[in-house]
Amino acid sequence: MIKKIQLPLQTSNLVVGFMIWVLISSLLPFIREDITIAQEYVAIVTAIPVVLGSVLRIPLGYYANVLGARVIFAVSFILLLFPVYYLSIATTMTDLIIAGTFLGIGGAVFSVGVTSLPKYYPKEKHGLINGIYGMGNAGTAISTFAAPVVAAQFGWSRTIQFYLILLLVFIVLNFFLGDRKEPRMKQPIMEQIKGVYKDQKLWFFSLFYFITFGSFVAFTVFLPTFLVDFFALDKVDAGLRTAGFIVIATGVRPIGGWLADKFQPLFILMAVFAGLTIAAIILAFSPAIGLYTVGSLLIALTAGIGNGVIFKLVPFYFSKQAGIVNGIVSMMGGLGGFFPPLLLSTIFTITGDYSIGFMAFSQVALVSLVLVLWLYYMDRLTLSKEVFDSTGQGIIVTNADGKIVSVNPAFTQLTGYEEEEVLGKNPNILSSGRQDKVFYDEMWNKITNEGLWQGEIWNKKKNGEEYLQLLSISTVRDQSGDVVRYVGTFNDITDL
Question: What integer pLDDT is reported at residue 188 of this predicted model?
Fold first, then answer.
């Protein structure tokens, strides 16, 4: 029973964490009525919770493996009681920044669930499970929609204090319903970091999540104030529109995870970044609210799917270091939400227009598309090399001139020759001398005319021992039909 309830419990935890994470941005139009905040500081105030919420994801992801999700969620919510209360009595911009900094704990809990929940499910469901957990992002929509409505009735300060009750409820729920017997992993944090930091996939995934989740967070904190200031919308209307953005981005996240379980995840990421590129271009040329809405909804759709895909990839490639890798990748995603609002505000201050900022975002998305293509290509090469190295058949590859350019480990095992001993040489170094010139002439005549020869042949090992091979030689040609290499595969059939 306890294990079955972890997915809904941890997803609900994430909802609460994200509700608190965006408290300031959700209520800023109301807060600014009582606290003076210069326009150039608005982006800083709204984005400041993202900083700690991003950086803390690394240790929280690690300690989720060491102590279990139950402890980390409960302690995080206890700690959040203090900044939430302090925010409710804030009177200056400095108070907002101090409280907002520690509200970041609410966003940091994301790395707890993506580390804990895959322990309860088989690999083929990790994408869907992490996608469902990621729907906890809906917490941002709930606050963005509900907080302004409640604040209009009770005031922003009292609204924030209501969140204290919510935190107390979930502290109790985690204490009683959290899994006390969750599997632990106590590998030292530095040892885990050393095991992954040189892996290029870690930094690729970090960049991709920086863009997908970063755009989600950025629009979540940016839209309410932007829609009020730029399009002169009512504060509640702006909150509703932002909530709609969040609901779509959150709702499609498990779809992205499910698609990644069923199909090649990198193909889906290609579509995601192509969509983000198009969406950003639309936003760059959208003076009217209608076109801006189209671009924003496309951002929500593609970013949400992308978020689901990436957290299918992390446990697939880093099963033993999932805690620390989840922390690093999700940290970069959180930081991705910090910088865009600042960049957009700076560009607007200098130029009086947001178009340049959106065009810059389109180019970053386009570069990411190219990187996904490259990663897919490198993955294919890696797979080919793994097959080449692991097959039990000896493989020998020559160039068009018949000089050896590569052999596999099985070649060394079967012949006794190390790779460096045969590179650049002719395969006739393996010849036993049993076959005459007519035999080889007929062999090469068939290879030349048909592109393939297969048969039995006596060859000689490095130690002079003669053995019978079952040998296949095939021709590899380029698009113009010219020979580029020959590939030979063989087995020792002497004793058969």
Answer: 65
State yes or no: pLDDT of 207 exceeds 80.
yes
Chain position carrying tokens 């203090």:
82
- Buried/exposed code over 453-472 (b: 16+ C-beta within 10 A; e: otherwise): beeebebbeeeeeebbbebe
Q: Which residues, listed in sequence order, are joined to residue 486 by a DSSP beta bridge?
A: 398, 475
Domain final position from 354, 388, 422: 388
**Mean pLDDT, rounded, for 111-118:** 86
The one-letter code for the residue type at 419 is E
First to last CA, the chain: 57
What pLDDT does residue 17 have? 94
CA distance 111 to 392: 41
Yes or no: say if 47 and 309 are a contact pair by the CB < 8 Å rule.
no
The residue among 350, 368, 388 that closes a domain is 388
- Are 290 and 414 part of one and the same domain? no
The number of angstroms, rounded, from the C-alpha of 411 to the middle of its chain's C-alpha atoms is: 38
- Give the single-character DSSP code of 121: S
H-helix segments, 318-459:
322-351, 355-390, 409-415, 419-422, 437-450
The CB-side HSE value for 227 (13 A sphere, CA atoms) comes to: 26
Instruction: Please tell me the distance from the alpha carbon of residue 135 to that of residue 138, in angstroms, as a whole number.
Output: 6
What number of helices (H) and strands (E) belong to the chain?
Answer: 22, 5
CATH number of domain containing 439: 3.30.450.20
Helix (H, G, I), strand (E, B) or coil at 467: strand
Are residues 68 and 177 in contact, defined by beta-carbon separation less than 8 angstroms? no
Answer yes or no: do 81 and 198 share one domain: yes
Find the length of the chain: 496
| pLDDT for residue 402 is more than 70 | yes
Residue 472 DSSP class: E
Q: What is the pLDDT of residues 284-305, one digit of tens each?
A: 887 778 888 888 889 999 998 9
Question: Which domain range does residue 448 map to?
Answer: 391-492
Q: Is 1 inside a domain boundary?
A: no
Query: Tens of pLDDT along 3-58?
Result: 889 999 999 999 999 999 889 888 988 998 899 887 777 777 877 887 778 788 88
What strands, in cross-sheet order, belong to the sheet with 466-477? 404-407, 394-399, 483-492, 466-477, 452-460
**What pTM value is reported for the model?**
0.64
